[in-house]
């Protein structure tokens, strides 16, 4: 009997050229570790110069950028480049020597990638500081060693606490102008430690620096033998941020319904998925999920990413979910895990930073944008205003002026599905929009839903 396979047999084993290709081993690349941080502090504390120094000393400035700085008229008498101009790009900023708008810069080291938000220090632009800090993992509060802790230092630290930024660095700048005095550094640290416990910020690092000269920014300084901590960049590279994301409750605000209807790919011919960025938790194929506001439980059939299908995904990945059942889901809906439950209410309790010259008043109507959902809303009550100087509440204000921090109650036209901001920064935040001009007038942080509220420790109530 011939050893040659008959036509009825699988000819792939007789003719190697017909055999399916052996797949190449797939190398799983770990997710890129990105640290988002902002700089804040009072005017002339050196925020823009610090960022310029970080970029310059970490070799993150392009040659054309450096040449433009060298050719500019902002070179000082000693031929020293004005590093602040790397972020202060507006003409008004360069003329006045202050930061007005938020400037974003990007750089990387072998250990981590960074996104920097250079935020204004002037009280007039506090709203811009809130914008830049809203997505930060870490906030750098700069303090002029000569002036010490002033009202803006307290204001920005309070805002960092209000925004639940988990990591804080107090960079005591211009130490060269106080002769690198350890006593002065300790005095400023003591001033901060008087009010930090009331703000509930647990991870705080104090670093003495000179942004202009580069001491303790990227390389250790010989002027501070009394300081044995890391440099600023060393701390930024090593601060632990993996646990900053909420991974305990799955949340997917639906951004759009994905219907490619690609006839050349059978898998995509009748495809119907729900796309968005995971705002919390982990989702797996086969997991039971709840679609809201439909209120229907279904099963995750497939999870699609840019690289194809995966078995699981987690916050903050962007994904497309395919469910086992046809459910009426559209933009503004949210898909959640069964536990822990998400809150639902039309009566909302929130902390807010007011960002518009026209003050916030009771009874005013706005559009409330929460994740991918926008609803009509009215301010039903203004409960408190925060006194930045004392961190005490002023009860019963009639209005909130621009840059004020306060606590309000809002009534919405239809239920909002949300978590408390302390639990989830993405599903616990919102903005208020003026209907006529579509200007963003306020940024808010939601208190825990009443039916799910638990006593919180280490937090102040404004």
Entry summary:
By secondary structure, the chain is an alpha+beta fold. It has helices spanning about 45-55, 65-70, 90-95, 125-135, 150-160, 180-200, 230-240, 265-270, and strands at about 35-40, 105-110, 110-120, 140-145, 165-175, 205-210, 250-255, 255-260, 275, 280-285, 290, 295-305, 310, 310-315, 320-325, 335, 345-355, 360, 365-370, 375-385, 390-395, 400, 405-420, 430-435, 440-445.
Descriptive overview:
The protein is α+β, with helices and mostly antiparallel strands and 462 residues long. It contains 8 helices and 25 strands. A hairpin with a 2-residue loop joins strand 2 (103-109) and strand 3. The chain is globular. It starts with 33 loop residues before the first strand and ends in a 16-residue tail after the last strand.
Question: What attributes characterize this protein structure?
Answer:
33% strand; 16% helix; Rossmann fold; 6-stranded mixed β-sheet; Elongation Factor Tu (Ef-tu), domain 3; 8-stranded antiparallel β-sheet; alpha+beta; transferase; 462 residues; disordered N terminus; 8 helices
The main pleated sheet reads as: 8 strands, antiparallel
Kindly provide the radius of gyration, computed on alpha-carbon positions and rounded to a whole number of angstroms. 27 Å
CATH superfamily of the largest domain: P-loop containing nucleotide triphosphate hydrolases
Portion in strands: 25-35%
Helix amount, in percent? 10-25%
How many structural units, i.e. domains?
Answer: 3
- The count of helical stretches stands at 8
């Amino acid at each position: 009997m011939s050893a040659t396979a008959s036509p009825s047999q699988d000819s792939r084993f007789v003719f190697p050229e017909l055999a399916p290709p052996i797949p190449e081993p797939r190398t799983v690349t770990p997710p890129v570790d990105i640290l988002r941080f902002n700089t804040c502090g009072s005017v002339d504390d050196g925020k823009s110069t610090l960022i310029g120094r970080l970029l310059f000393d970490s070799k993150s400035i392009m040659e054309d950028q450096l040449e433009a700085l060298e050719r500019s008229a902002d070179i000082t008498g000693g031929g020293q480049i004005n590093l602040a101009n790397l972020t202060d790009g507006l003409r008004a900023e360069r003329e006045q020597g202050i930061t007005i708008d938020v400037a974003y810069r990007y750089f990387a080291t072998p250990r981590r990638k960074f996104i920097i938000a250079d935020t204004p220090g002037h009280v007039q632009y506090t709203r811009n500081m809130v914008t830049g800090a809203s997505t930060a993992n870490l906030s750098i509060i700069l303090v002029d060693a000569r002036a010490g802790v002033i009202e803006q230092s307290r204001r920005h630290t309070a805002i960092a606490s209000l925004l639940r930024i988990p990591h804080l660095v107090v960079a005591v700048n211009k130490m060269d102008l106080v002769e690198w005095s350890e006593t002065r550094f300790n005095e400023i640290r003591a001033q901060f430690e008087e009010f930090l416990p009331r703000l509930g910020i647990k991870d705080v690092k104090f670093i003495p620096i000179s942004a202009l000269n580069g001491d303790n920014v990227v390389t250790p300084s010989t002027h501070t033998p009394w300081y044995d901590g890391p440099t600023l960049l060393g701390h930024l590279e090593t601060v632990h941020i993996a646990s900053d994301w909420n991974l305990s409750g799955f949340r997917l605000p639906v951004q759009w319904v994905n219907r490619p209807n690609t006839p050349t790919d059978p898998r995509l011919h009748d495809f119907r998925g729900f796309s968005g960025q995971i705002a919390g938790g982990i989702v797996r194929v086969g997991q039971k999920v709840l679609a809201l506001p439909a209120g229907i439980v279904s099963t995750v059939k497939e999870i699609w990413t840019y690289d194809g299908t995966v078995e699981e995904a987690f916050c903050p990945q962007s994904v497309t979910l395919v469910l086992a059942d046809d459910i009426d889901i559209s933009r503004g809906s949210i898909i959640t895990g069964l536990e822990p439950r998400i809150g639902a209410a039309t009566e909302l309790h929130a902390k807010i930073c007011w960002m518009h010259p026209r003050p916030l008043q009771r009874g005013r109507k706005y559009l409330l944008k929460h994740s991918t959902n926008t609803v009509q809303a009215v301010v039903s009550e203004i409960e408190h205003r925060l006194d930045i100087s004392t961190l005490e509440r002023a009860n019963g204000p009639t209005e909130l002026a621009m840059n004020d921090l306060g606590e309000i109650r809002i009534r919405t036209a239809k239920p909002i599905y949300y978590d408390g901001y302390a639990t989830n920064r993405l599903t616990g935040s919102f903005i208020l929009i003026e209907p006529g001009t579509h200007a963003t007038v306020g940024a808010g942080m939601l208190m825990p839903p009443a039916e799910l509220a638990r006593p919180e420790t280490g937090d102040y109530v404004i």
